[in-house]
Amino acid sequence: MVNELVTNLPQNRLGELRAEIARAGVDGLIIPRADEFLGEYVPPSGERLAWITGFTGSAGLAIVLPDRAAVFTDGRYTTQVAQQTDPTLWERRHLIEEPPAAWLKAHAAGKRIGYDPWLHPGAALDRLAASGATLVPLPANPLDVIWKDRPAAPTAPAEPWPEEFAGRSSAEKRETVAAALREAGQDAVVLADAHSVAWLLNMRGGDLDHTPLALAFAILDAEGAVTLFMDPAKAGPALREALGNAVTIRPRDTLPAALAALKGTTVRLDPEATPAWFGQALAGAGATVSPGTDPVRLPRACKTEAERTGARAAHRRDARPMIRFLAWFARGARHGELTEMAAADQLLAFRRMEDRFRAESFPAIAGAGDHGAIIHYRATEASNRTIHPDEPFLIDSGAQYLDGTTDITRTLWTGPGTPPAELRTRYTLVLRGMIALAATRFPEGVAGPHLDAIARRPLWEAGLDYDHGTGHGVGAFLSVHEGPAAFSRSAAVVPLKEGMILSDEPGFYLPGAYGIRLENLLLVRPVAAAAGPKRWLHFETLTLVPFDRDLIDAGALDRTERAWLDAYHARILVEVGPTLDGPTAEWLRAACAPL
Predict the structure, then answer these.
(1) For residue range 342-395, what is the model confidence (pLDDT) as tens digits?
(2) Alpha-carbon dihedral 61, 196, 441, 408, rounded to 10 degrees
(3) DSSP summary character for residue 218
(4) Which residues contact 476 (CB under 8 A, 6 or more apart)?
(5) Whole-number Å distance between alpha carbons of 500 and 524
């Protein structure tokens, strides 16, 4: 299988880039996946890594030297990067097991390596500098110079997000963050994460296909005033009225002058989430840069009561198209007439029927058979294949509703035959791990990395594992992947807080054969009547969609696991069942019958 982007990739791009790198006076270039907003998802104008390598995953980095080039990805994309890149041009390296700094140390120590200071956070550059290479900021990105048909930056309008969904006014949020700056003795903070800007200003937009962002930077001062840097034409009367007089909108090309005006002040920058250009510009202007975490990240992750209510409503709403899809799939998959793209299109069609639906929260992952083993697979015209009878099918998808963001994965059996015993065993191990995490109670102060192993334990006991984190944070009508908390061994140790929403998605993948992943979203809540002085937390499951009974080995579940699953399915019948009718309602009653 070859990705269509690779098929159309001119062979001379890498050669042209090397020539431009040499003209820039450096020995190499680092090319990240991110654009200047450092987000996971980028507009077409920011797809530099895909344009030069062919790799279209959402996480990665490439390094180009005169005589060799490498592309780095994590375990989610090991198979995909092998399929999408030319092995005669690109070495494939694991982002964790062989970090870029180690590769640079081996192949470019003492060399001058260029980078675009808009595309790298300062902390990432510090890690790369440990390689012994000399990192050189470039005034112009050599890749942009040769990308002659680069798409224009997005210009979608920005809009206010109603306070009834946000739960707090922008003025209240600005004052809360400004108070934290005053307490820390800081005069201002640069917000380079467009998600933080969106949360702070209760603003959404359409600059990305799946995340409702208006791509913008902002400076918040210690008195609560904001300068918003984006094209003023994107802000219509409704947004300007909602923002009020405390927010000034300026074009992005005024950023250098705005930073220069901060001379003599102390400015907070998040070194992990701010392009290095900002720190360099502030230092050059004579400001004092105070490294610190983006002060919006944690408040954004702890959802307000209104956002929690919206999340519950969005998941109940999203359960209907998902269940309609599962019933439709059960009727048609065994005939061998569906394709991966047709299945994903049908699910999207069901979702579009729902009130407050705005978009998919990411391109659906619809992988049949061996494609399910590609963790972040996306079907294209070149790879799209028929879903055969008697094979597993993995569907990972989500939706953006005006009041919440969803993300769900189910692994299905196409039938009509009985699933192989090995497949049922491994599916059940994954299900047991998912249930174990969902049912966990834990004391306040525990972080995601402390809980990751709970979901892995059933697989570990069988000598199996998966090469990705167990779960990520989820935004409120924002990005489907949100920090700072996550269930992952490599995640930062951020204690889980009431109101956080995270995914619970263990899996197992057998390359060349099949993939299994099961995913629900969890809301962190306090335990109502915990004994002792400590405050305890637990999870409320938000997702309301049944699991495939054909793949469950009921005899391998213990009494507690069976009770959890029966209660979960009974809850689906009560909360979602009355909104369905006809064959779908009949299918749901059978799917949710007690084990």
Answers:
(1) 999 999 999 999 999 999 999 999 999 999 999 989 899 989 999 999 999 999
(2) -60
(3) E
(4) 165, 166, 303, 307, 310, 311, 404, 405, 501
(5) 5
For residue 458, cis peptide bond before it (omega within 30 degrees of 0): no
Question: CB–CB of 413/541 below 8 Å?
Answer: no
Identity of the residue numbered 174? R
**563 CB burial (10 A radius; 0-12, 13-18, 19+):** middle
**Can you state the percent helix, strand and coil of the chain, rounding each to 5?**
40, 20, 40
The answer for 504, left when phi > 0, alpha when psi is -120 to 50, beta otherwise, is beta
DSSP 8-state code for residue 405: E
Q: How far apart are CA 448 and CA 502, in angstroms?
A: 9
Alpha carbons 104 and 119: distance in angstroms, whole number: 18
CA distance 484 to 447: 10
Q: Position of tokens 């702890």?
A: 302
User: 571 vs 433, 465, 568, 578, CA distance in Å?
Assistant: 20, 30, 5, 12
Q: Tens of pLDDT along 255-295?
A: 999 999 999 999 999 999 999 999 999 999 999 999 999 99
Q: What are the helix and strand counts (H, E) for the chain?
A: 20, 28
Q: What is the pLDDT of residue 342?
A: 97
Q: Indicate the helix (H) or strand (E) that contains 144.
A: helix 142-146
Establish how many alpha carbons lie within 13 A of residue 1's alpha carbon, considering only the half-sphere containing its beta carbon.
19
Tens digit of each residue's pLDDT (9 = 90 or more) over 388-397: 999 999 999 9
Q: Give the Cα separation of 59 and 76 in Å (integer).
A: 9
Tell me the whole-structure pTM to 2 decimals: 0.94
420 by Cβ neighbours in 10 Å (0-12 / 13-18 / 19+) ranks as middle
pLDDT at 45 exceeding the cut of 50? yes
B/e letters for 474-512, b = 16+ CB within 10 Å, e = fewer, are bbbbbbbbbbbbbbbeebeebbbeebbbbbbbbbbbeee
How far apart CA 384 and CA 293 sit, in angstroms, is: 42
Amino acid occupying residue 238: A
Binned at pLDDT 50, 70 and 90, residue 530 comes out as low
Looking at residue 3, what is its pLDDT?
39
